[in-house]
Structures are given as structure tokens and as C-alpha cells.
Amino acid sequence: xxxxxxxxxDWWRQAVIYQVYPRSFADADGDGLGDLKGITGRxxxxxxLGVDALWLSPFYPSELADGGYDVADHRDVDPRLxxxxxxxxxxxxxxxxxxKVIVDIVPNHTSHLHPWFREALLSGPGSAAxxxxxxxxxxxxxxxxxxxxWQSVFGGSAWRRVxxxxxxxxxxxxxxxxxxxxxxxxxxxxxxxxxxxxxRGVDGFRVDVAHALVKDLAEPLRDIAEFGPTGEExxxxxxxxxxxYWDRDGVHEIYRDWRKIFDGYSPPRTAVAEAWxxxxxxxxxxxxxxxxxAFNFEYLQTPWDAGALREVxxxxxxxxxxxxxxxxxxxxxxxxxxxxxxxxxxPGTDENAWLLSGGRTPRVDVSHGLRRARAATLLMxxxxxxxxxxxxxxxxxxxxxxxxxxxxxxxxxxxxxHTRKGRDGCRVPLPWTADGPSYGFGAGGAWLPQPEWFAxxxxxxxxxxxxxxxxxxxxxLRLRRKLLDGETLTWAEAPAGVLHxxxxxxxxxxxxxSDAAVPLPPGEVLLASVPLPHDGTLPPxxxxxxxx
Length: 548
What we know:
Oligomer: single chain
Strand order of the largest sheet: 9-8-7-3-2-1-11-10
Organism: Streptomyces hyaluromycini
Keywords: Hydrolase
GO molecular function: hydrolase activity
Pfam families: Alpha-amylase (PF00128)
Protein name: Glycoside hydrolase family 13 protein
Strand content: 5-15%
């Protein structure tokens, strides 16, 4: 059995990490917004669930222009969410329960309310204060055009003009000006931030937009029209490491510097990169002398198809092994449609169009989506490496796709001219009880409206209920701790549409992704994603764990 205790510096290699989106987890003071005391009060849920760590999305001072990823102070707590004392109390309680604490760090940009950016605006063109960010004069006869054609991930130009005529770079929302990582003061400040949270007992960091810190700022700035603005498609059209602002080779110097800080603690602090880059490039971020792990988004994006899943699993394990890291697996997070809905959408569905239709075109079969989600979960938890679980997936929550546009908070909605609905549907506050003004989220309402059908998904409704998704997760995580050993798998022969692999000591996982029942291989049934029939078959959209 793998040692996941605090004594083991490699606890993270096969851990299960639970992502908490603080504003939507639990509200202790009844103002409708989740907070740190709310998290502390619900940590027993994570202890009973059986995860190894919680990853806390941003809880820093923020005006919420991008759900907390617009950070005004990287070394404090948003007063609406609590205080540093509350953070310390939460960390202490997590550690008492045997849970590690991982926090989000947002190094690519700050909020426009950050003291540095306010100083930059007051100081004017050519000032030292502006050099911490990326300011440039505009093009055109009067500087009226952006300095380049670089595009924001949220839509539109990545440049915003200020009253004195200069433009600043924001790869995300205008309220999120990009930092200039060629500036030593920026680098030094983040070293201080890493030490600040590590000294407070944080066990690791999730690095937001890890592939964007270094930009090619040589004049004249290169336009990107010839190879596309964003995402992997753009990266595939240029030589590796040479895109003007995504995944440039120079970023790895920064993470090698960070690793020295991480390794100065006992046990060393862990880190995982959010890097939307091709598979081979992702391995660079996961090297032992850099961050150590990187999110595997290929797996999240893989369709429910046995061949595609096997290819991605095999490739991901090989990539992680080559980097000296362990693989990572994730099915949902705060940026994507929840997998209980996503996995049942017909292949090729435009997810944004589906969200704009309120989840009605095409209509999804909720029970079918949950069945696939449960099967996908047991498959993921059987794989070697770390599994990242997003809050609410242990309840089987589908996407709240029918949120009225009048309540949307995601900046994507406004910045794209109401053409992309955004990510609010996966961020609706959790249901803890089957009734009450916010289903137990808090004494008042919730900052995003919760649908009535949340009642049947509540923790209270599922705890102790045989066959519930919550109990499936609890059983799976308890069993996983006993079975886990080694970081390899061996593929076994299987019918078309079936994934079958063995782990150490004869433990096996079989997933039927096809449309027809198949013979169940021999062995003791340890756990199944749904009750199995008595005819010796494995039904479609079902995963089973087998003993020797």
C-alpha cells in the first residue's frame, strides 16, 4: 500500500486532491458567498470522503472580475472570505484530519486594483512602475491602434488603452493586467509569496496559466494572425517554445528557481502546472527540478471511446514517466462543463451552443450522464498517478446549464458580446441539505441561483444511502488506499469497446465503453459503478474493479 502520510515526501504522486472553489463551497456568515470558515466547518466531509488533499482556488482580495483570479494582494485573504487567522485555522483543521493543503497561485497577472498597477497608472509612460507590467505605445498615426493583434482568451483584443495613450497587455480580462516576468522585482515578489504561504503550512501550489509568464516583448511585437491566437492549435503551428506568449522556453528558468524554494522545506512543497500545451511540452513543466506535476487536459478532453481513452492513458503515462513525474487525471474543474453532463453530449457537440440553449439543444439524458460519470470516475481512480476531483462531482452534479443570462458573473459573457455563456454553470454553490434557502450552503441565499433539482443531489440526501454517488466515491477512495501500489499498469486483452488493465497484486479495472453488454472477466468483484446483473455480463457504461 502506498504511503500517503506526511512522512512521505512523495505523497502527491498517487494522491486524490479535492478542488474547493471557495466562493461556492460553504458560507459560514450567511452573506451568500462561500468563505474560509465555511470550508473549515465542512472539512469533515472531505475527511469522510477519503481524499488526501484539498486544493483551494483563489481566496485572495479580488473584485471578482474573473472569479477571484484577478488578485489584488497575493499574500492576504479577501475580507469577504475571512482573515489570515481564518486561513491558519482552516489549515490546522485540515492537517488534523490528515489532509494536505494546496493553494492556487496566480503569477501571470494581477488585478488592476493591485497597488503596483495603480502606481503604474499614476506614474505615466516610461516610469519604472510601468515596467513591472507590459505597457506599449499604440500603432497608427496617433497610437490609436493596439500594439499588436494579440487576443484575449476571454475574447477581443488583449490590449487596453489608458488615458495617457499607452496600452497595457491583458491575456485575460481587462481587469487582469499581465506582469512583466523579465523584471527582477516581479520574480522576487513571487519568491516572497511562495515562502509566505509555505511558512503558514501550505503543502503545495497549483500554478495558474503556468505556460504564459514569459512573452516575446522584442520590438516590433510579432503579430499572430499567421498561426492563430490561442490554445494548442496555435502552438502546433509554430516551432515549440517560440509562440509570442504561450509556452515559451524561458518559462522553465522561473520554475527551476521556484523548485529551490520548494525543496528548502521538509517535506518539500509540491506544485502542479496548469499548462494548456501539447503532451510532449507538458512533460517539461513536470520535471523534478521544476514543478513536478502538470495537469493532463488531454484526458479531460478525450471522448467516451475505448480506443481514444487507451491511447491517451498510454501516452500520458509514458510522458509522465519520461519526465520523472506521476501522471495526473481530471474529469471536471471550475473551467469546464461538469462531466456528468459533458460525457453524455453527442460527439461533436458545440458545448457553448448547448449552454446558450440552456442545456436544451441537444437534450441530455441525466441518468445516462450520471451512469457514464460514475464509470469514468472508477476508471480514473484506478489509473496510476494523482486524481483531481472537483467539488460536487462526488454528488454526481450535472452542469447547471439553464442559468438565466441575467445572473451570469463570468466575464466571458460580456467580453464576447454575449456569444459565449462562460463557466458559471459549474460554479453554482453546493447543496448540503435537501431544503433551506440555499440547500445548506449558508443561512441566506447563494451568489448564483441553485436549481430546485439540487435537493436530490444534496450531501444530506446521499450520505448513507446505498447506491448513491457519494457512497460510491467514499467506497472507491477507501478501497483505492488499500489496493494502490506501484505506478504502472498492464493492458489485458478485451472485446472491442472495452478497457481492461491490471495493476499490481492482481487488481484489475474493466470499463465497458461500448453499447452492448460483454462477458465479465473472472475474479472477485470489489466494486462496480452500478449494480451488476446476475448473468455474468458487464453492461454498457460500467466500470468494475476485480480482485485476483
